């Protein structure tokens, strides 16, 4: 049975200052998250290359379409596992234990990748990373909130500082890991990611007791004996059904990565729709709250359309950077700069632009005052910008050159990041505003599942990319995203009416 602590006891157990005027515990969580994101984004920047590069180049030599599918599946399952990780912390372990065990699994996953291995070991490593990230990612953010009183004016600033650790990790790791992979091989690249997570765990182990005190040690809603028994039965049934299904598929020679990709796509679409149905049909949802959930649905679809393009930065655009982009700067600069750009470096562009532009956008919304666009319009702008980021890729592809200038890719990443700054921060606050009182946590789960749904659909889309011409793929994807954005603009009055006073 978990010990219960009052908010006063938790706050009294932590040093209240010591990190830029914030509780010292924020520094523990900042550096743990920095190293976790460093390992995650560094590894993801080279994962597709590792799968499709030839054996002579240190990879597995698999089909490019399959490689991009695996990266998309990995991304979708990461977001789905976060829902389970949050539940485990709430009902079984508390956030502190969940995030620590998650960090250990992440480190083990990277260690497995850094060893000269076979394909089965690669899939086991990815499984470790999926479970580990699911345990760590949602729970480290929750622990930040536990360090502050709800009315503490420093809370918003705390999350801003915390998210800076995410972007710094995402910015630096593709540069370091990408260079190591290009010059010294894949296994050293993965080893650097493993060392990064080790530093994160070491920081946590040395400072957590002193800096975090009692925060995150209690289990908020522990399972009763009856619930625990019921849970064991459900988990056992899921495992049995899974084993039987695998056995049947293997008999018919259908136990393939392609059929697993189909399963991930179905799950990615089904889970959020199941949650929506649950919220709308529940007796705990009041009539005006039901209208707000219905208003949230088109925003959710717009978010899915946006993340489908944004998340293809580590699949479609990663492959494009590697195979269709002129990476030899000597050829672009007429021999003035003799340097070969590691293709993984393009993965640093999105976090770089976020670090530079996020403060500009937050000031812009304030400066606009009463001209500040409503939420629906911001979502529409975000999706339209994502569409434009793909449409501009058609321009260099229409020329006769075999390899395009890298500045087109930079422009594409910049435009999609502008779209992200219209959707991502606004999406989080809109989700909390439109959530029914009884389902605030589950509504947040739906928001994160928009990314899981996007990457679940991408599992099929990235395969399409390797079948049709790049020109057609960018054109059709861009036009569809822009059409969704325009449709959202036209339905703005109807959606605003359903939002019942929420802006």
From TrEMBL:
Coiled-coil annotated spans: none
Topology term for the membrane: Multi-pass membrane protein
Alphabetic keyword roster: Cell membrane, Membrane, Transmembrane, Transmembrane helix, Transport
PROSITE patterns with a match to the protein in the record: MFS, PTR2_2
Transport among keywords: yes
SUPFAM superfamilies recorded: MFS general substrate transporter
Keyword Thylakoid: no
Transmembrane segments: 38-55, 67-89, 96-113, 119-136, 157-180, 186-206, 231-252, 258-281, 293-310, 344-364, 376-395, 407-428, 474-495
UniProt superkingdom: Bacteria
Subcellular location field: Cell membrane; Membrane
Family membership noted in the UniProt record: Belongs to the major facilitator superfamily. Proton-dependent oligopeptide transporter (POT/PTR) (TC 2.A.17) family.
Protein name, entry field: Peptide MFS transporter
């Amino acid at each position: 049975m978990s010990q219960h602590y009052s908010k006063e006891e938790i706050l009294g157990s932590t040093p209240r200052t010591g990190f830029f005027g914030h509780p010292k515990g924020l520094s523990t969580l900042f550096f743990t998250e920095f190293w976790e994101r460093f390992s995650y984004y560094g590894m993801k920047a080279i994962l597709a290359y590792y799968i499709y590069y030839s054996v002579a180049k240190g990879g597995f030599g698999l089909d490019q379409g399959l490689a991009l599918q695996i990266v998309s599946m990995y991304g979708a399952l990461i977001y789905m596992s976060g829902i389970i990780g949050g539940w485990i912390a709430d009902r079984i372990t508390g956030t502190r234990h969940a995030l620590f065990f998650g960090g250990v699994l992440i480190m083990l996953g990277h260690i497995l990748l850094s060893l000269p291995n076979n394909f089965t070991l690669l899939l086991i490593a990815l499984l470790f990373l999926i479970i580990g990230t699911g345990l760590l990612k949602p729970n480290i953010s929750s622990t930040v909130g536990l360090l502050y009183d709800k009315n503490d004016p420093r809370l918003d600033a705390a999350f801003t500082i915390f998210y800076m650790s995410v972007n710094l990790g995402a910015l630096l790791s593709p540069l370091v890991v990408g260079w190591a992979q290009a010059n010294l091989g894949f296994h050293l690249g993965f080893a650097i990611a493993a060392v990064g997570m080790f530093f994160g765990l070491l920081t946590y182990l040395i400072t957590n007791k002193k800096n975090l005190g009692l925060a995150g040690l209690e289990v908020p809603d522990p399972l009763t004996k009856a619930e625990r028994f019921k849970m064991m039965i459900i988990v056992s049934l899921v495992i049995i059904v899974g084993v039987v299904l695998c056995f049947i598929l293997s008999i018919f020679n259908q136990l393939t990565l392609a059929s697993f990709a189909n399963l991930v796509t179905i799950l990615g679409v089904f889970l959020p729709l199941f949650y929506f149905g649950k919220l709308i049909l529940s007796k705990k949802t009041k009539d005006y709250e039901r209208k707000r959930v219905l208003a949230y649905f088109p925003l959710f679809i717009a978010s899915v359309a946006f993340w489908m393009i944004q998340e293809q930065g580590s699949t479609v655009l990663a492959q494009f950077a590697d195979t269709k982009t002129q990476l030899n700067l000597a050829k672009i600069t007429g021999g003035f700069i003799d340097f070969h750009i590691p293709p993984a470096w393009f993965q640093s562009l999105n976090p770089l632009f976020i670090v530079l532009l996020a403060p500009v956008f937050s000031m812009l919304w304030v400066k606009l005052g009463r001209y500040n666009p409503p939420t629906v319009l911001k979502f529409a702008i975000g999706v339209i910008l994502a569409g434009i980021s793909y449409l501009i890729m058609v321009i260099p592809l229409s020329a006769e050159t075999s390899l395009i200038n890298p500045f087109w890719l930079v422009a594409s990443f910049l435009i999609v990041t502008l779209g992200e700054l219209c959707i991502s921060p606004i999406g989080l606050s809109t989700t909390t505003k439109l959530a029914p009182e009884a389902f605030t946590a589950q509504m947040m789960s739906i928001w994160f599942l928009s990314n899981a749904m996007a990457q679940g659909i991408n599992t099929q889309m990235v395969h399409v990319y390797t079948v049709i011409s790049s020109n057609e793929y960018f054109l059709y994807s861009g036009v569809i995203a822009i059409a969704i954005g325009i449709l959202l603009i036209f339905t703005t009055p109807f959606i605003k009416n359903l939002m019942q006073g929420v802006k």
